[in-house]
Every structure is written in C-alpha cells, then in structure tokens.
Design a protein that fits this description.
Elements lengths: L14 H10 L3 E6 L4 E9 L3 E5 L5 E5 L3 E6 L2
Antiparallel strand pairs: 1-2, 1-5, 2-3, 3-4
Amino acid sequence: MNDKQQSKPPEKWGTSAAAFYADCEGKTIHIHLDTGGMLTGMLLGVDRWDIVIQREDETRVLIPKHAIASIEPGT
C-alpha cells in the first residue's frame, strides 16, 4: 500500500470538516435538513453536537447536527 492509499490516522479525522466550518464562520450557509426543509443564515458557531446560525431576521437558531442532511456555503 502506498502513502496515498493509507487511511488517515485517527488524530487527523475531522480536520477537513473543522476547516470547512472555519471557512464558513461569519458567512451565510444553507443547511438542508433530513426532513427536506432548508435553513439559511450566518454561521455563528459549531460544537460537537450543534450548529448555531443567525437568520436574516436576527433570530438565532440552534440546529442539532443529527437533523442535518448537508450544508453548503451561501452565494
């Protein structure tokens, strides 16, 4: 097995997700929910289980990560 085929060691897992969230912090994101709905707002924070966004009307929304199908940066 060459270097490219080896899997990342456990201490490296999640680093690309952390970089994605860091790039999106303070910017608009679109959160697609498992239910088919979508929420849009500025990313305020992320922790192990939840994401917090601020919607256009200034409301803060806490979204559990288990309810999220995907996240994309806003345009």
